[in-house]
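Data deposition worksheet. Section B asks for the primary sequence of the deposited chain exactly as it was used as input, without tags or linkers unless they were present during the calculation. Section C holds the resulting structure in token form. Section D is free text for depositor observations; keep each observation to a single sentence. Incomplete worksheets are returned to the depositor.
Section A, Depositor: J.P.
Section B:
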Amino acid sequence: MALTKEQIAQRIARELKDGYYVNLGIGIPTLVANYIPAGIDVVLQSENGLLGMGPFPFEGEEDPDLINAGKQTITTVPGSAFFDSALSFGMIRAGKVDLTVLGAMEVSESGDIANWKIPGKMVKGMGGAMDLVASARNIIVAMVHSNPKGESKLLPACTLPLTGVKCVKKIVSDLAVLDVTPQGFRLLERAPGVSVEEIKSKTAGKLTVEGDIPEMKF
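Section C:
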């Protein structure tokens, strides 16, 4: 069966490495903060001006002055630092972020990402996404494999306005874990109970499947 949003975040959290500086985008990526593996020391960065973001607060313990870039209440960890947006984006543009996790509306087989605008719909703006995809050393996308119409969101080429070009390295969807390679998407893992055939049928872009594909473990 398809993964929940929490399971997508839990699987992405396994990609974190000790010492990483990590930016978590709005939506599913913010949940990654709740699943950082024991023994892994990472620093979470929020582009509105925080280093050292912790997990979401428990109900009743929220501080309205502590928010992430998505306006959600958050916690901090010992050693956290606050600063203005100019310094925050200076960190991002200088390549200090090891990994950014973003949501996406579409990803192409060459690693392009579209995640900020649907033509004809009002949006507030791109936010920090363009800076992040241009500057982060590694980009993982957290997404749902198909849109509400059942159409694939993993495409030969994006149809929506692009945020970044050839920048996505890995995708964790509700159906699968995939690498982005010069040959297109490569299937690494599948959600429990989801067949390779289903993933193939819901991936419009070029997909490589080699050997037995293991199920994700939770």
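Section D:
The longest strand covers residues 76-82.
Residues 5-13 form the longest helix (9 residues).
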